[in-house]
Amino acid sequence: MTAPLTPPPPQEPSRRDQAGQQAPAPSAPVAPESAHESWRGFDGAAVNGALGVPYGQDGPGMKTEVREAALLALGVAVTGALLGVLWWWLAPQVPLVGDVVGKNWVVYLKDSEGEQAIGVDGTFTLLALAFGAVTALAVFLVRRQGGVPLVVALAVGGLLGSLLAWRVGIWLGPSGDVIAHARSVGKGVTFSAPLKLGAKGALLAWSVAALVVHLGLTALFGPRDPEPAQLPPVG
User: Fold this and answer.
1) Which strands make up the sheet holding 54-55, listed edge to edge?
2) In the chain, what's the furthest Cα-to-Cα distance?
3) Cα(46)–Cα(56) distance, rounded to whole angstroms?
């Protein structure tokens, strides 16, 4: 007789799951990316590695804006010559009369109560306001994005244009030597006084009008910043 055989020890369960597929081997841990790591996106803009937000410049760049602003200020200032011509053409004339007292020539106003001198200042101011509004509208139509250099260029160009218009109007107007003018026309003959800007504050009218109109157009019709995305409610 032989002794009964000892049953074999139970085998360990297979590492296959119920579907008979091999369970995936655990992958090695991957070190998280640094929060400061960035890479280049498809459009060439730098993208933050953690947030994924592109770092692109908004606008043409400060150097380009300053260069464009300088050219704009120069162009606005040059148009002041046209303002000077219009001022000389539209401003009312101030009548003067020459007389001889003893052996000396004197010049005085023909109409001492006239308002022609005020009209000269008013004409310059109204023309400067109109030029400021037109230049601001033209600049806004060309560059709707605005910007600090653009606004500064409008203000500086308007002031330079007013100064140029003032000098051009005086140059085109009657002679500034009223005694020589009175001698040339004769005693008691009426002649026009040279253009004179009594209210020097009118030189700022162009710049003020340009700034107000441009800022108003930018506020009403300028580009708007995109609204931030609304996060879904939690829960």
Assistant:
1) 38-40, 46-48, 54-55
2) 173
3) 7
Rounded-to-integer distance, Cα 216 and Cα 232, Å = 36
Reported pTM: 0.68
Q: Give the percent of the chain with pLDDT over 70.
A: 68
Dihedral angle, C-alpha 65, 66, 71, 72, nearest 10 ° = 70
- Residues 6 or more apart in contact with residue 180 via CB below 8 angstroms: none
- pLDDT at 179 (0 to 100): 86
What's the CA angle centered on 49, arms 44 and 54, to 5 degrees? 40
DSSP letter assigned to residue 60: S
Beta strands 190-192 and 95-101 are antiparallel
H or E segment to which residue 39 belongs: strand 38-40
How much helix, strand and coil, in percent to the nearest 5, is found in the chain? 45, 10, 40
The kind and range of the H/E element at 66 are: helix 62-78
Tracing tokens 């000389």 back to the chain, one arrives at: 88
Return d(Cα 132, Cα 165) in angstroms, integer.
13
Placement of tokens 């090695």 in the chain: 28
DSSP state of 91: S
The per-residue pLDDT for 149 is 87
pLDDT at site 191: 84
Ranges of the chain whose pLDDT falls below 70: 1-60, 146, 222-235
CB 88 within 8 A of CB 179: no
